[in-house]
Write a structure and sequence with these properties.
Blueprint (H helix, E strand, L loop, with lengths): L6 H12 L8 H12 L5 H4 L2 H7 L9 H4 L14 H32 L44 H17 L29 H26 L3 H6 L1 H8 L6 H17 L11 H18 L21 H15 L14 H20 L7 H24 L1 H21 L11 H17 L4 H25 L10 E2 L7 H22 L4 H14 L5 H5 L5 H12 L6 H8 L25 H33 E3 L6 H4 E3 L1 H9 L1 H9 L4 H14 L3 H8 L4 H9 L4 H14 L6 H5 L5 H46 L4 H4 L2 H15 L15 H16 L3 H9 L2 H7 L6 H18 L10 H17 L5 H14 L5 H10 L1 H14 L72 E2 L7 E2 L2 H6 L1 H7 L11 H6 L1
Parallel strand pairs: 1-2
Antiparallel strand pairs: 2-3, 4-5
Helix pairs in contact: 6-33, 8-11, 8-14, 12-15, 14-16, 15-16, 15-18, 16-18, 16-19, 17-18, 18-19, 18-20, 19-20, 20-24, 22-24, 24-26, 24-28, 27-28, 28-31, 31-36, 33-35, 33-36, 36-39, 38-39, 39-41, 40-41, 40-43, 42-43
């Protein structure tokens, strides 16, 4: 700190450092510090900023304090202002200062709400976001005490509890031991990086496959040795492992030509690496590490890997062969590598797509012939196979997102395998292609067997993880081929677009193999199996054509199956089923003639099996239902159509044939039924689905006709689940588009505006806690990074060879640096980068709804009583357009209905003026004059009409030239030449809300900003002061979204039609009923003259 600080401040800082002083400081100390900065002596670069010093002396700063709001008292310049690096650093410092002041304002708003008796109940309220990575197999709850990728010593006679305890003890012992240093880098058990990935961008090469083949051979040898030991064991042990003996006896040997293929790759890898036979990687960790490295390269480069997108090049021969000798050499090369018609002769560079297809086919064939064809044997080798393939699937999933040839190769092979299976089912012919669908089903069988056997829990989790990875990999292939439409913000349009070749390939893959396999899993009694299949199907339906998606809705049997999956009634009590299996007196036993093929796979001879299966079913059943509900929502979104016209969301989004069929099936009451579930996962997804479908007028009309709909809405807002209330706020906001919903929403008890303001305050508290947590973690990580870096520098200066021998030094530093770059800074939690977090969405939706609620003097008084104006003032400077424009709309709409507002209503009126002018000034400087700009223009013009606000405008103009231009030039130039009510929001964007797997805005609609898929402008629609009478199409039954939208028959003026098509189709019937059709036509003057 600076030496020129006041003496009282220095003494207080010393006492705080020693720990002698606690609680708030002496007022004289705070006064001395204020005088020091107000006199101009305070320099943030030398002595620290005012806010920093206030925090260090134990005082609480106020957001309305000018020493807190002004940046010159808290941050300092670095270098000459104007340089690019300096401007970036300065901008970051300004953002940090604004974020810190905003968090202070949040705390003051919460204190104000507590004084007014509108505080929230933080003991019951909560936000529980579900981790998308661990929600498919129950691994987050059924978790081992150590890394599941590191197999512990196995004792198959132990149950899960004993095994976990032994693993925990082993882990603690390993943690206490010092790290062993490498002394023999060329030993057979060590890793040589030259064996795989010699070039940084080599990608999925033959060297990688050759090393994988070598590792598989070693695993097979260990498996055979284990089998031999079991066969030579005493009678007691042999009886325990009798099931494994049968499995090992039935192992299939790989085909001869595949073995020859493996040896060829193995020899080629040895030759290319200077015959380093002892450096061939033989560890599981090495294969997984190389998969992770390839995955990271695909992510960083974001393009296909390889030299000029060619993963391998055939060796160039010194002289060109010709004639019979050349043809003989080509045939020999084809025989060695197992090539066929697509093999390219040596000396020519292969096409990238052909290379990828060849390598993908080889790799998947290895999975099929070497790993997944064998039944799970002992727990180590069984889980090792699953972990290896799972790591490769994750790598290929990342590669597929940036290299479409990976998807094309896998899709083509799967379609060919499916066709060959159909052709060879009668004559048992063997086919060369391998389908991922078959591998997925085989993995599922192994997962069920391992889960019900005496093997440890970590082995069962490994197989379930592989099953979910393969299932989602199939979905990723189709999503990538269809153009990643799951993240597309816009709805489908009425204009028909032809399918691309990749879309046709994806449709064929889905129709031939993926859809039947996933539907079979959705019908399964096992919740873990259903959960992965439902999630994969939910991703797929966003990209496939409406005709294919209709196949999930139109057949009554399939629709009933999806409904049962959402309700969770397909879940079976596995333990009870196995208990009744051997009881002849109960239904479902073998003696009664019924068969339970899937459940019969479970062996319930031990308590371990029963507990494990019961726990997994209990965990996965609600998650499976939630994924089923999400599938229903995505089907609705796929069926929505955007009309080619401008207007409010309720007028431009109409249900297409798919959505109309779902409405006929009763999707609205079905989602209402699911929303009443006691499980939070199911109810949140159901309410979110209703929030999405409520963009359509037909769904809003159907919803208001449901019994006890007001009581149902009340149950949503009294829920302690923040995710559910957040979706309910979005739903209520959409319902306010129709005037018939206005009074029912106002009748909700407790008053809906008070409930939403309480939730907004709770969101502020969560944002504060999250910012403090991220700030603490970032500081800890930065300290560790500096300590590790300094340690390496000191050891290097002392010529300590341990730095070079131990690779953990560099890897730890790189890992820490990567974590620091990937972590979102605390000051950016409320920006567009972190806007999709549940608390940020809930706060934004709360502000948007309250701005829409203000329509007349009655609602204005209710909003003022709930302290909503203070909420709007607190959110005016949130760096998200949806939130700050909605906050300005709260004040602007109140001014439009009440006439004027006194500065005394706001805790800091200077902040209201300054934040609105600052936001408008940025838009003017960027020449970004959008409808959002007029929100702030309307607000500032409304405030300027009241002379009580003049001092605040003058103070703002005196301190900033840009603000002065806005106040004295821009605002008078526009004047009142703007509509009294702001323009209606644009078309809502699909997936913007109500779906945790989609990024989007808080309001469920689109914005005028083309740079991102933000939510709609949060402006309130002008209320129509006349009773709403909506007409119905006489042909199709569709209800118009606004009065006067449909055309009526010009003859009778009674019958309405939604368009020319319906009128033409209904004309023959209406022709007989039209009362004035037979009336004589009027004869004009011209006709009379002719007569």
């Amino acid at each position: 700190m600076g030496k020129d600080l006041p003496k009282l401040v220095k003494e207080e800082l010393d006492r705080r450092k020693r720990g002698d002083a606690k609680g708030p400081p002496n007022p004289l100390v705070v006064h001395a510090l204020r005088q020091y900065f107000e006199s101009g002596k305070g320099d943030p670069m030398i002595c620290g900023g005012f806010m920093t010093l206030m925090r260090e002396i134990g005082a609480v700063a106020q957001s309305k304090d000018h020493l807190v709001k002004h940046s010159e008292h808290n941050i300092w310049y670095l270098g000459a202002k104007g340089e690019e690096d300096t401007n970036e650093w300065w901008q970051d410092q300004l953002e940090r200062h604004e974020a810190e002041v905003r968090l202070l304002r949040y705390g003051e708003f919460m204190e104000m709400q507590e004084i007014k008796g509108l505080s929230f109940d933080d003991t019951k309220w909560r936000f529980n976001p579900l981790d998308d990575k661990e929600d498919l197999v129950g691994e987050d709850t059924l978790k081992d005490p150590q890394d599941p990728h590191t197999p512990p010593p196995i004792n198959e006679n132990m149950d899960d509890t004993q095994q976990q305890q032994q693993t925990q003890n082993k882990t603690e012992e390993v943690d206490k031991k010092p790290a062993a240093k490498s002394s023999n880098p060329t030993s057979p058990n060590q890793v040589d990086d030259t064996a795989i990935g010699k070039k940084q961008q080599e990608g999925l090469s033959k060297n990688f496959i050759a090393a994988f083949v070598r590792y598989v051979d070693l695993v097979e040898e260990a498996q055979q040795q284990k089998t031999a030991k079991v066969a030579s064991a005493p009678a007691g042990i042999a009886s325990v492992n009798g099931r494994q003996q049968e499995q090992h006896a039935s192992l299939k040997q790989p085909p001869e030509e595949l073995q020859h293929h493996h040896h060829h790759h193995h020899n080629q890898a040895n030759n290319s690496n200077n015959n380093h036979n002892n450096r061939i990687p033989i560890t599981e960790d090495f294969i997984r590490t190389k998969c992770q490295q390839l995955q990271q390269q695909y992510k960083e480069l974001n393009r296909p890997l390889g030299n000029n997108y060619v993963l391998d090049q055939e060796p160039q021969s010194a002289k060109k062969l010709s004639g019979k000798k050349n043809r003989r050499r080509q045939r020999q090369n084809k025989a060695k590598i197992g090539g066929g018609a697509g093999t390219i002769p040596a000396g020519k560079r292969k096409d990238h797509g052909d290379c990828i297809k060849e390598h993908i086919h080889t790799l998947v064939s290895l999975w099929d012939q070497q790993l997944l064809v064998r039944r799970p044997g002992t727990a180590p080798s069984s889980a090792t196979c699953a972990r290896i393939v799972s790591a490769m699937v994750e790598m290929l999933t990342t590669a597929a997102k940036v290299d479409p040839d990976v998807c094309r190769g896998l899709a083509t092979a799967s379609i060919a395998a499916s066709n060959n299976n159909n052709k060879s089912s009668s004559n048992n012919n063997k086919h060369d292609t391998v389908a991922l669908v078959e591998l997925r089903e085989r993995t599922l069988t192994f997962a069920l067997e391992v889960d019900a056997d005496v093997r440890p829990l970590w082995a069962a989790n490994a197989w379930w993880r592989l099953y979910s990875d393969l299932t989602m990999f199939l979905a990723d292939i189709i999503v990538t081929l269809t153009g990643d439409k799951e993240n597309r913000n816009e709805y489908r349009t009425t204009a028909a677009t032809p399918l691309t070749p990749d879309e046709k390939l994806a449709s064929k893959l889905f129709e031939t193999s993926v859809s039947p396999s996933l539907l079979k899993s959705i019908e399964s009694p096992h919740a873990a199996e259903r959960c992965a299949a439902l999630k994969a199907m939910g991703r797929i339906v966003c990209g496939i054509s409406v005709e294919l998606a209709m196949g999930l809705v139109k057949p009554k049997k399939t629709w009933d199956m999806l409904e049962q999956a959402c309700k969770g009634s397909a879940s079976l009590n596995i333990i009870e089923a196995n208990t009744t299996k051997n009881d002849p007196d109960k239904e479902g036993s073998p003696d009664n003639g019924s068969t339970m093929t899937t459940v019969a796979k479970y062996d319930t001879t031990t308590a371990t099996t029963c507990n494990r299966v019961t726990q997994r079913e209990a965990i996965m059943a609600p998650r499976s239902s939630a994924q089923g509900t999400a599938l229903m929502i995505r089907l609705c979104g796929t069926g929505m159509i955007k009309e080619d016209s401008d207007g409010p969301p309720g007028m431009t989004i109409i249900p297409g044939p798919l959505a109309r069929k779902m409405i006929q099936r009763g999707i609205v009451p079905f989602l209402m039924e699911l929303s009443r579930s006691d499980n939070a996962l199911i109810s949140v997804e159901a309410v979110g689905g209703l929030a999405q479908v409520s963009c359509v007028k037909d769904c809003r009309t159907s919803l208001i006709q449901q019994p006890d709909v007001v009581a149902w809405l009340e149950s949503i807002f009294v829920s302690p689940e923040g995710n559910k209330v957040s979706q309910g706020i979005l739903l209520a906001r959409h319902l306010l588009w129709d005037d018939e919903w206005f009074q029912p929403i106002l009748s909700i008890q407790p008053p809906i505006e008070q409930t939403i303001v309480k939730w907004a305050a709770y969101c502020m508290k969560c944002i504060q806690e999250r910012a403090d947590e991220v700030r603490e973690v970032s500081k800890k990580l930065a300290d560790e990074f500096m300590a590790r870096s300094l340690s390496k520098i000191k050891l290097s200066e002392n010529d300590d060879q341990s730095v070079n021998d131990d690779p953990t030094f560099e890897s730890d530093i790189q890992e820490m640096e990567a974590r620091m770059k990937s972590q979102l800074p605390w000051n950016k939690l409320e920006t567009d980068e972190g806007r999709t977090h549940v608390t940020n969405l809930a706060l934004s939706r709360s502000v948007i709804f309250l701005s829409t609620l203000i329509r007349d003097k009655v609602t204005s008084e209710r909003v003022l009583k709930a302290n909503c104006l203070a909420l709007g003032a607190a959110c005016l400077d949130v760096p998200v357009d949806d939130t700050n424009s909605a906050a300005a709309n709260i004040v602007g709409n109140y001014l439009a209905t009440a006439g004027s507002v006194s500065p005394n209503v706001f805790p800091d009126p200077d902040h209201v003026v300054r934040a609105a002018i600052s936001r408008l000034s940025r838009l003017v400087n960027r020449q970004d004059i959008t409808p959002r700009s007029f929100i702030f223009v309307r607000l500032l013009n409304g405030l300027r009409k009241n002379t009580d606000w003049a001092p605040f405008f003058q103070s703002c103009a005196d301190q900033d030239m840009e603000h002065k231009y806005v106040i004295e030039v821009f605002l008078p130039k526009i004047g009142d030449n703007i509509p009294s009510s702001t323009p209606p929001p644009k078309t809502p964007r699909r997936g913007s809300d109500g779906d945790n797997n989609h990024k989007g805005g808080a309001g469920g609609g689109g914005s005028g900003n083309k740079s991102n898929g933000r939510a709609p402008n949060s402006r309130a629609r002008a209320r129509v002061n006349r009773p709403t009478k909506l007409n119905k199409c006489s042909a199709c039954g569709k209800i118009e979204s606004q009065p006067g939208e449909f055309k009526k028959c010009s003859q009778c003026n009674v019958t309405y039609y939604c368009g020319r098509t319906c009128q033409t189709n209904d004309w023959k019937k209406h022709k007989k009923e039209c009362p004035t059709l037979g009336a004589p036509k009027k004869i004009g003057k011209r006709a009379l003259k002719k007569s």
